[in-house]
Design goal:
six-stranded parallel sheet, Rossmann fold, ten-stranded mixed sheet, binds adenosine-5'-diphosphate, about 35% helix
């Protein structure tokens, strides 16, 4: 699609290849703290496969090697803070791109904002004081980039609070501005994806001056949050369309329990808000191709799974026994993941689960210091509980491949990836009935043997205990059901292709909106 043809083609109906700019603070393999970093590149590649032209804009963090990137000629000015910040722009092709339609990534290189360790913070400063400025700068730079490369997207797609200013800039300025002779943002529409409503970017409202927008915009866009500035809230009120990463989480966030105080804002935009399930990267998370497993396996030939279990038991120093179920867990240690109910000193159920049940439990993760401490404490007291504190791709793949069950007792879960990885690897998930977990796992029915996993409603230590107990009982007494569930999980399709088609529909709806 050419720049000038854009507006014409837009009126021509659905299914037209679009120009899409992904505005993000993270994208693997360049910078990652969570699921957002996996979602943006995977979605971009899947959209490109459908024929869309996709570009990604993000900061050049300190850890991203400039030597491996190409530099665009000339510096780029970004009007913020009452003046102008200057940035160099680097670029490369996203790994995994098809030759005939590559996804290009652009990096904003700004020493004062990004020439430091950490994406949002560092151990000594968990949320950098200048984050509202750093990410306002990135949001504004996305538009300047389009001018610089003379490429005007149909859709600017923002992700989470760091780029939530993008829809605001579009709605209150860029849409009406003169851009260049060859194009403008007048026909561009915005989409904001909420990957986790728990993080909103709430800062002192004095920072708003830095956006170069007037205080009328501050109030019209409802940035105000008890006299603070809530970046995500401004984005929610300004974007043409909104979505989150699973249909069930979209419904849950409209209610107070999961709304993080923005349920009312989302209700007021409910006509423009939907849930689209994330996919998984089945080039990376695929037992038939997984380089971290001792032998490949698939739904047709599951022999390799027994070898993975053996390797897992060996790695964690547990008896190599095929006749005992292994429960696996890989997680960030934060309250969201239900770690209080599982590992809370004196009340969490992990101790009694391991003490009372004939099972092995392997854990990988890091996060809250109290939980790390408690987990190591449990590992020293229980012969069948083993833990590794830290981050390891390799071990996480082996746990997904080798465990019989995977535990996710989340408080809330916008989508959740690990339960989908588990299903793909024939590892039966044990999950709480919440968010994307409820969309992807079907509860086991003891009478018929139907289902793909075990599920509980209340987040309490005893509910976790009882559900793990139920799964272990079924493992010993209904082996045929467990086998059938494992196989059923492996046959499911969690690829990004389906999600990319739903995002295409969301973009078309945005373009149709007035
Ligand atoms: P969230 O994004 O809320 O942390 P998800 O389930 O959506 O939860 O995704 C978490 C991702 O991070 C998964 O790919 C998971 O395997 C990975 N992960 C989390 N902790 C670790 C760890 N300690 N080592 C390796 N991978 C981890």
């Amino acid at each position: 699609m050419t720049k000038t043809a854009g507006a014409l083609e837009r009126t021509g109906g659905k299914g037209i290849p679009r120009h899409i700019l992904m505005c993000t603070s993270e994208a693997a393999p360049f910078a990652k703290t969570g699921g957002l970093a996996d979602a943006v590149p995977s979605l971009s590649l899947a959209l490109a496969k459908l024929g869309h032209e996709v570009k990604i804009a993000m900061p050049r963090y300190y850890g991203i090697d400039r030597g491996k990137l190409d530099k665009l000629e000339g510096a780029m000015g970004v009007p913020v803070g009452g003046g102008e910040e200057w940035t160099a722009v680097y670029t490369t092709v996203l790994p995994g791109s098809a030759k005939n339609n590559p996804v290009r990534v652009y990096f904003f290189d700004h020493e004062a904002f990004f020439g430091r360790e950490g994406i949002y913070g560092a151990p000594f400063e968990s949320d950098f004081l200048d984050n509202p400025r750093r990410f306002t700068f990135v949001s504004k730079a996305c538009f300047q980039l389009c001018r610089k490369i003379d490429w005007y997207p149909d859709i600017v797609h923002a992700h989470d609070w760091p780029t939530a200013m993008v829809p605001v800039y579009l709605k209150y300025g860029e849409k009406y501005g003169v851009s260049s002779e060859s194009g403008s943002f007048s026909e561009t529409k915005s989409v904001l994806t909420i990957h986790n409503l728990g993080y909103q970017g709430i800062y002192n409202k004095d920072n708003f001056f830095y956006t170069n927008l007037g205080w009328d915009v501050f109030y019209q866009s409802c940035f105000d949050d008890w006299n603070m500035m809530n970046l995500l809230k401004g984005g929610i009120y300004s974007a043409d369309k909104l979505n989150t990463v699973s249909p069930n989480y979209a419904r849950e966030t409209l209610r107070q329990e999961h709304g993080f105080r923005l349920d009312g804002c989302l209700r007021s935009r409910s006509g423009d808000y939907r849930g689209i399930l994330n996919g998984i990267d089945n080039g990376v998370w695929n037992p038939a191709l997984d380089k971290y497993l001792p032998a490949p396996f698939s739904a047709k030939d599951r022999g390799g799974k027994a070898l993975a279990k053996q390797a897992l038991q060996r790695l964690f120093g547990l008896p190599e026994n095929a006749g005992i179920p292994v429960i696996g867990m890989v997680t960030r240690l934060t309250a969201q993941k239900g770690i209080g109910e599982l590992f809370g000193p004196g009340y969490g159920s992990a101790f009694s689960i391991c003490r009372d049940m004939k099972l092995q439990f392997v854990f990988l993760g890091s996060g809250e210091p109290w939980a790390e401490h408690e987990i190591l404490n449990l590992a020293s007291r229980l012969p069948n509980f083993r833990a590794r504190i830290g981050y390891s791709e390799e071990t996480s793949h082996l746990i997904e491949g080798g465990a019989d069950f995977f535990l996710m007792p989340s408080q809330y879960e916008p989508c959740g990836l690990n339960q989908m990885y588990s299903l793909a690897y024939g590892t039966v998930p044990i999950v709480r009935n919440t968010g994307g977990l409820a969309d992807t796992v079907k509860k086991y029915d003891e009478k018929t043997g139907e289902g793909t996993g075990f599920m509980f409603d209340d987040l309490t230590p005893s509910a976790i205990y009882n559900t793990v107990g139920w799964a272990v009982w079924a493992w010993y007494n209904r082996k045929n059901h467990i086998e059938a569930m494992s196989l059923r999980g492996m046959k499911q399709d969690f690829s990004w292709n389906k999600s990319a088609r739903e995002y295409t529909r969301l973009y078309e709806d945005a373009l149709d909106s007035v």
